[in-house]
Amino acid sequence: MIRFDHQREERIRLPESVFCKDKSVEMLNETIAELVEGAATGVLFTRLDREKFVSLESELAAHLDYHELSGTAILGGARGKRVPGKVAVITAGTADLPVAWEAQRTLQYLGVTSTLVADVGVAGLWRIQERLAEINEHDVLIVVAGMDAALASVVGGLTSRPLIGVPTSTGYGVSTGGRTALESMLASCSPGVVVVNIDNGYGAACAAARILQGIQSE
Amino acid sequence: MIRFDHQREERIRLPESVFCKDKSVEMLNETIAELVEGAATGVLFTRLDREKFVSLESELAAHLDYHELSGTAILGGARGKRVPGKVAVITAGTADLPVAWEAQRTLQYLGVTSTLVADVGVAGLWRIQERLAEINEHDVLIVVAGMDAALASVVGGLTSRPLIGVPTSTGYGVSTGGRTALESMLASCSPGVVVVNIDNGYGAACAAARILQGIQSE
Amino acid sequence: MIRFDHQREERIRLPESVFCKDKSVEMLNETIAELVEGAATGVLFTRLDREKFVSLESELAAHLDYHELSGTAILGGARGKRVPGKVAVITAGTADLPVAWEAQRTLQYLGVTSTLVADVGVAGLWRIQERLAEINEHDVLIVVAGMDAALASVVGGLTSRPLIGVPTSTGYGVSTGGRTALESMLASCSPGVVVVNIDNGYGAACAAARILQGIQSE
Amino acid sequence: MIRFDHQREERIRLPESVFCKDKSVEMLNETIAELVEGAATGVLFTRLDREKFVSLESELAAHLDYHELSGTAILGGARGKRVPGKVAVITAGTADLPVAWEAQRTLQYLGVTSTLVADVGVAGLWRIQERLAEINEHDVLIVVAGMDAALASVVGGLTSRPLIGVPTSTGYGVSTGGRTALESMLASCSPGVVVVNIDNGYGAACAAARILQGIQSE
Amino acid sequence: MIRFDHQREERIRLPESVFCKDKSVEMLNETIAELVEGAATGVLFTRLDREKFVSLESELAAHLDYHELSGTAILGGARGKRVPGKVAVITAGTADLPVAWEAQRTLQYLGVTSTLVADVGVAGLWRIQERLAEINEHDVLIVVAGMDAALASVVGGLTSRPLIGVPTSTGYGVSTGGRTALESMLASCSPGVVVVNIDNGYGAACAAARILQGIQSE
Amino acid sequence: MIRFDHQREERIRLPESVFCKDKSVEMLNETIAELVEGAATGVLFTRLDREKFVSLESELAAHLDYHELSGTAILGGARGKRVPGKVAVITAGTADLPVAWEAQRTLQYLGVTSTLVADVGVAGLWRIQERLAEINEHDVLIVVAGMDAALASVVGGLTSRPLIGVPTSTGYGVSTGGRTALESMLASCSPGVVVVNIDNGYGAACAAARILQGIQSE
Amino acid sequence: MIRFDHQREERIRLPESVFCKDKSVEMLNETIAELVEGAATGVLFTRLDREKFVSLESELAAHLDYHELSGTAILGGARGKRVPGKVAVITAGTADLPVAWEAQRTLQYLGVTSTLVADVGVAGLWRIQERLAEINEHDVLIVVAGMDAALASVVGGLTSRPLIGVPTSTGYGVSTGGRTALESMLASCSPGVVVVNIDNGYGAACAAARILQGIQSE
Amino acid sequence: MIRFDHQREERIRLPESVFCKDKSVEMLNETIAELVEGAATGVLFTRLDREKFVSLESELAAHLDYHELSGTAILGGARGKRVPGKVAVITAGTADLPVAWEAQRTLQYLGVTSTLVADVGVAGLWRIQERLAEINEHDVLIVVAGMDAALASVVGGLTSRPLIGVPTSTGYGVSTGGRTALESMLASCSPGVVVVNIDNGYGAACAAARILQGIQSE
User: What is the ipTM of this complex?
Assistant: First the structure.
């Protein structure tokens, strides 16, 4: 029997979620069964790739609202309440999209509106500058970038908005695994850029919700 | 002649600052002279240790409001405007204080009110739990911790507030330089914890200001 | 012909075991055949995944008491003697269970009683606090945790029992491979926490046996 | 004002201690003054080198029982109670002695008897074998070794006692900082060896006390 | 067309060899075809796993004397000449055998006699001590060990023979990939131990040949 | 007696130079004496800090044209010939200047004209954009930047000129030693950016000379 | 819809390219479809392995000029214009060829002539010396080497040409992933060697084009 | 009282030595006093820098034959016996000399004849080729090199002699501490190159003695 942190929503205003990557299909089947039995609502599953999803017991899988591109699933529907404010999810390149989608899907589940601003890497600087006014209409920015992750520094120097960097594990050689992108964002020359773990679109979305829910509660 | 980013305040609502660690006394003297000549207001100097400060030309040093414990100095006075909201700066141990003070001093300079919640490391869990209500009265939390940095995860699981982790370079052996604390915070099991560079109290304060200034502008 | 350390039990009171991960199916077949021929008793096989187990010669595999979840097998039955005292195996999350099961299965084989205290990660602190009294009824604690591994520090600060930390290779990004969890445990702010290699449930169980067998021999 | 964890002794049976390396002389003066004022008893100071010790206010320093070789000081006397059992502190080479002394001094302060078995590195294997019987008369072994740290594996294969490895930062090249010794101990081919942070004689002593105090309470 | 270093034998008294791991089946087919066409004699292929070997064009593969356990193949027969002296190849555990076999097979191809001394890891010290006299009858020692690689230090402290350490990539956690074994051997407390790359049985054999051929030429 | 590579100029069109950091004052005195005796012309000394320079035998030091800011000295005058083309040395921040000066001083010594474009870091993007036309009038660009080194990517995306990145060891935390800047440049999202070792202004200048001398020789 | 940087050619004289490794087949299909629809000319695809290529929609794949050995494809034909000058692509061993071919294929697409000088690793020094005159007839040199990457230093000391090093991820043990080759090239004792990311044949070719196009524009 | 391994000479034919870097002046005084009292002969002290040497009690220091350039001292005279054969100690650059001298001084103390072949780095390849015949007159080669350490590979490809590589910690940036040189030597493309720890001239000399003493005993 799995011990869920059912009080989490009440305590930190973020519901329980299930990270699927390190869990076997058996563990996931058991988890879903318990949740369904307990009539749980609003549980987010992340890093659930297609191969694993199709291996689930079909009866249990039927309870999941699955979204393949982001590797996420929702059991029991999203939260009813809406969080005020808007988030822009900004990506450097096409390969960063799955992480961006994980962030957007998490935001949607948390009741937060978001916009995708894709393919605005700094190798073609005009792309980000062209959309700066649009970006500034959002309350929180999530910048998703791999390799040199220079986009976080450039955006951080162009806007006053809270900016959460998500380094991605794209690339090869020194980029492998996302270490360079992570450290580049942490060493950003633009002040006040904050960072989450590599490929952690989910965490960035939760951080954005913490910020926006704080505004709400004033 | 140094090229300052004088438009920074207007563009990103954070004024220009000077990181002193990698600059020679000669460079700093030149910088201060140019700023004084240009009648600059509100420039923050960080990582200015006593040894370097007392080596400055005394005439120039006289323009600085120096604070030794945090290694910061302000030239031309703090910003006039006040930013709404309050920040709690929470530390695990005594050795984390200089970084916490850098954060507090930066906040003060940015017009943000802050409270220090010191010595609440998780080895004695009652200390953080005892002060939880007080902590929750703040809008943004900055958690400063070295070694295992477990405090960030524990606080992140107890409150819904935006939480910025600052790993510190305290400790020895595997703790040396703060890598373990940094990675522990990035890998935090509490959702929505964001992180800045090791010992970067300044950056955490700027991130808090980005959040609070966003609230203000709603 | 393999040279077993048959005197090990006598010398260090821990029987010989076979680590299967780096051994080919051919090597394992040969090992089992020799052990069976020598009428060996009480040999533990670890890291024996299902794929490898089913590839063994079925005649030889029939001599193994296989346990898939923990990847362990016992040849020739467990030790007859019972070791006094009890061990609590405490896990942060569901993904840490295979390592916890390896520890429990090794303890069982060594004649040591153990209890599993699962899913008590610090993101929901009430879970570990709720079970503290139960935990304190055990003589040795094994804490299995990945990512930030903050659970080791928190438990270490709540109890006086010997505490052996087992970092796990769960997670992604900076958590990959378990380095962060390992170093976080080594840098624990709670005094007297000791650590074994990443995912080494077997080693933690042996260490617990060393402690409990010492008590026995007083 | 520093917030001590005064309940620590009661909670985990290990008294509060002060790690001095990352604290300024000013911080230490303030700490000692508060402890003296509060009539604290039995506080251990570690990593207090001579240079720092002689810089303390002499009035405050007079309250410390200082031991230069181990870099430790005790304020308010050691604990009255005696812990049953004996610990052997075993070192590979002369350069490991300061860490061994930190362990011994911490044990003494905790009320635990210890013996030093020095200079028994495996390059001259007869040295450790010659003293094996003597070593086996102890209840817990602390093995202090740098460079290849092979001593931990060799001792672990010769005795059934609980064995705590302390890697040291001696050596040069790949040994620099103690990483190789740490990882060599964690990867030990002898089962049940547990490890603490590099140079952490204090932590090893606390772990030994956790074990011996557990025996006592049976 | 591949450019072989046909003068190598003449220049450094070690014949050309082909490392197969990073080469595609197409590249290998082309290489063998050219060698066969040129009537090459005595070319050693290393890291040629079964999967790759069976994918070769069968006509070409027929020219190879393949040895699966060591992943080696010889084209055109071994060298005719015999090198005086004997090498002992000593292994810590069963998982080290493939690397030991690569060393033995390379020695055989170079005309050097060798003996395998297997399963003498230091966790059971009697095993290596029991065979010390036999080992000392050899002119050069190759010690193959993974994990903590303590065997190299122990053997180095027991004998005066030239000792070449080969760290292996066995194990898990901190042992992964063989870094710990490599650095432990480089940091060996026994004087005059030399080391080759991880898993490089071939290189150790070549080094032994350099030594023995030097003796020959006196 | 030191063996200079006097044919270097003829062979690779770059004269011999002396890297002073790892050489003792005694070694440098001996080197200069031999050069003076041999009537050497055009030898560049790099990484010669003031402390070392003033420790040289004054008679020998008198032969050096010393430049403190760049830590360089020239013995026997610069090369007579001029290399066609111009190099722009572009820096992100003030702390990058010593490395930029090393590059400029090496270029001057090699007969190459250069311009310094300082303080154009991407946190204030307008600074680099404002000077783009001026930069494009140069034949080769050297971009000197530490921390996130995002400047290399941004410049690489704005111009078609050959671009040599020099990462610097400025900053703290993850920036320490310049690894992050190095890897960020290597992972640059702008195509065709090449990189030299951390702080290697000298190497970047030599690379620029290789390019410009190639043009000359067409 | 993907946002291409169509102005890239005009701005930096290098056309847009598509790095395929981190992109799913779905993403690639969408990319090609958009390019075909937009009648794009001259788009280079890199790291497109056979498995991925054959998974593309055959209608879309038909628009690609695919080259398996280098993993590259060109859509819409190469650039019409020719760049003056010649590049020599020099490899140490057979395993470096795929990276060399990526460089050559990129050069071809950019309109640059290149020559392959293969299998001239320094273990047989005569091979590179034999071809030195031929190499010197080229304007830019690209040296592709893994393992110790000593070839870059040796070539750098023999010629005055601009030299771009491409470290490769060949080898095993410490060579794994190409870090050693990368750092060896960055630390080259030959002055003016510049380096690109591991296995980045594409980047080296772009850098060569930057150099040669600069010559053209004089 | 220090426990010397007095049987070492008899057992492994290498006398006891004292590594001074990690030992305090007090420890060294005590060591020398005990050795003098025990009338020890032939003890080598390594890494004894001038500052430490002059801090020794002068009465004790008088027993040492000190050699500053190599940081070595001999107490009680060198070994009487001579070992047959000759060693060439080959260095890439001037900064490698202290390590080369440590090797030579150790060889002298062990009774082995050696020749220094200095300043033959591969940037000027003619230097090593010019002295190849001379080098080949030696029985064992020690190659001392930092940075890219390409010299080991080049020499390894030119001669059949046993070759021991000693990486040095010279250089800066990626060379810092000697890791790159170490890994470059381990990954050498020349077969049969063996390696010792960074800056370990002493170990290389001991390895050479193991080889030459083996020849002697045939």
Answer: 0.95
